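Entry 14. Structure prediction run on the chain below.
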Amino acid sequence: MARKTRIEYAGARYHVINRGNYRSWIFESAGARKSFLKCLDEVCIAMGWRLYAWCLMSNHYHLCIETPEPNLVEGMRWLQSTFANRFNRFHHANGHVFQGRYKAILLDGDALGAVCHYIHLNPVRAGLVEAAELQQYKNSSFAHLWYPSRRSAFESPEVALEFAGGLVDSRAGRKKYREYLDWLSQSEGDQKQMGFEKMSRGWVKGTKDFKRAILDDLKDEQIQRVVEAEASEMREPRWERTLCEGLDTINYEAEDLLSGRKGQGWKVDLARYLREVHLAPYRWIAENLHMGAPSYVQSLVSRRRKQDPSKEWILLQKHGKLD
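Output returned:
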């Protein structure tokens, strides 16, 4: 896989994620959590970062940060290496603590607030605490939002409050925000609209204009690295358009994807078209056509290819509506 490029500029905002090596429970002990948070404090002060939200789970972490200076790479290198050294020294161990390079997703507009809500609800989705008692989970910025005395100077909880209907940082505002998260935790539709299912994927979250502006500022070799590393993210709109046009061509609706059997012939034809003509991954096809496991979709497409190796199976192309 291509090595992902790091996009840095003054005022950039990121959703940063990483996991323990082999998904190990690196934050299982209170000492490890305390050590990581101390490192986080130190790097935020040294780099001048603003911290909008954070959460430590047993085997991974989430950060939502702003870098007033283009220093994400420098700061993250220090944060992860310093914590790893301290962790290994305490455990009399050596080797990698994290699974590899951290993931840093650029954020813009409403995506910033959605990421803050997503991060705060991590322990709720994991079944560790009820949303109505979220302040009891100590390993999250929500506890610091709820109890202002726990905050560091670089923590900025007002961003999450602002993106929850313009709430203010007051006792009443914090209570309403907890109620908002409680409601959001039970609303799968609103979570889907905010993109919770894909919150940890891709390289950027924001408007099309924001994505275009970022790409316009990159050098050719940087764009190539982004394209190679995040091809699925950048091609997904085309796959979505092709799927919609394909359904229209064969007189099916999006609702039919939900009600139809996983291995129906028209679904297999759509899957084969998306795969062979537009190189859509089987995982994306399985998820969006509601066809079960990616391996099952792959077997269906392979079987159909053996039955009819010609290109005449592409009923969508016969209508001349798809390229």
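The mean pLDDT is 86.
Filed with the rest of this week's runs.
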